Amino acid sequence: YDLDVKVLPDGEKRLLDADEYEAHKTKWQYPADIDFIVKEHVKILVDWINENKGPFSQDYVDLWYRRYLEIQHRSDR
Fold it and tell me: DSSP letter string over 33-67?
């Protein structure tokens, strides 16, 4: 639904593309329940970021970084 959350180095979070979301909501006539669900899930996403949950946890980041390094190492051979 065109919304992104950007986390800046200082921890500030910015909701990106809100204007694009609003334009598409009007153009495609998103129902009120969909609009509510999207906005609630943005809140959940920000909570996950704040709480380092799911893909925002350091363990998850470390796991995928190690996998990236393994793949990169294989392609360097």
Answer: HHHHHHHHHHHHHHHHHHHT-GGGSHHHHHHHHHH
Closest by alpha carbon to 23, among 3, 41, 37, 6? 3
Backbone φ/ψ region at 6: left (φ over 0), alpha (ψ -120 to 50), beta: beta
CA dist., res. 63 & res. 70, Å (int)? 11
Q: pTM for this one?
A: 0.79
Residue given tokens 């970021």 in the structure block = 49
Q: Which of 34, 4, 37 is closest to 18 using CA atoms? A: 4
What residue has token string 């990236």?
68
pLDDT tens, residue by residue, 2-61: 899 999 999 999 999 999 999 999 999 999 999 999 999 999 999 999 999 999 999 999
